[in-house]
What we know:
Number of domains: 1
Strand content: over 45%
CATH topology: Porin
Helix content: under 10%
Order of helices and strands: HEEEEEEEEHEHEEEEEEEEHEEEEEEE
Structural class: mainly beta
Amino acid sequence: AITSQMVHATEVFRLEGYGPISRAMGGTATAFDVGAAGMMTNPATLSLMAQGSELHLGLDVVNTDIDTKNLATGENASSNNHSKNRGPYLAPQAAYTYHNGPLALGVGAFAQGGLGTEYGTDSFLSRATGGLDTGLENSSRLLVLNVPFAASYEVNDKLTVGASLDVMWQGLNLELLLGADQVGSLIGSGRVSGSLVPVLGGLPDLRGAHFSLTKNQPLASGVDAWGLGGRIGMIYKMSNDTILGAAYTIESQMNDMEGRATLTAIDGVAGQIPLDGDIKIRDFQMPAKLDLGLSHRFNDQWMMTVDVSRVFWKHAMKDIDVGFESDGGGNIDILLPQDYKDQNILSVGLAYQTGNWTLRGGARIADQALRSDLLFGVIPAIPKKHASLGFSYDFSKENSVHFAYSHAFKESMDNSSLPNTSAPIRVSHSQDNWTMAYTHRF
């Protein structure tokens, strides 16, 4: 777990599939054997694995293409590798499973998802109200890591049930500049409170406020927290060739993310006034998710899979709740509106087996969970269409390698509304994901 770095998710903050078998087949995983990574979607599928033990070692590689355009001036801010700990994004995987008779057990470490942008210090996003260049950074990095402990039990020759309990960790780096008009809009809508508000309002020429909560390291984050998650699942064998599956992942129960931060007030007369202190990101949760799946094997070579999912973002992500307490006294609380919508996802996969090879392909389409009038340039998690392909090769009965490639097609979204942007912006985001794994059965 401590080797995990960051990963940029494609469906808001979630990866579009776990492990190369699922990823290659459009992220489907509810009703067929995807190996150890099945514990991240439907733990009941662990009972579809062969009897005995299996070791899974893998790696996700994510390369993003993100741009934010100022629609008023035509300027473009590109999210590139301005800093040593961002992009391309890496997420190692490791898991062990044991299947004996009707019981299967598993433990693993997987990145559930995250977010990553890096706009640097000299784009229009670093410009405060009135065109004042600040030289301050705008960036983000979220990593969510799951350590599931899973079990599956075959009740009879048709019905299998499973469950997992996940220990979860999440860490966030954030560099965010809010213009004075954004701050004023938040105050006017009752989203800002605390003893520092009149202090900011008393500056002679307030142009903006900048939050900095970042550790420029591979894993350590400006704020982080531990918590719990989990899921339940079942599969039902309608025949030897057709399997139905269902799984429900509960909303995470994370503690508030805490750490150190600097709040910098930007004034046209007094300059930049930094305040160091403690910061909390309150009640930042990963959403509940319902998966229904079907797999059908046409013959010894061909299999098709379909999953329908609903992700309950609306309850989990209404606001980003920020609380800051200055070392010198004073506090400020800010609610940054997000108001995500619940997301529906349809994914399909196809597999063809010949000799030692299994070839796979898939596609995935989702609703848009983010609202355009609440879009942040540093949180552009908007892709919703994917295509994927991959393969497995069995060197022997004991050793196999697996590979998948997934492309998130370019998606664009405009926002010209306060408080989440000052300038009218258009954010464009596409990306390429690769995942590979080695499995050893014994």
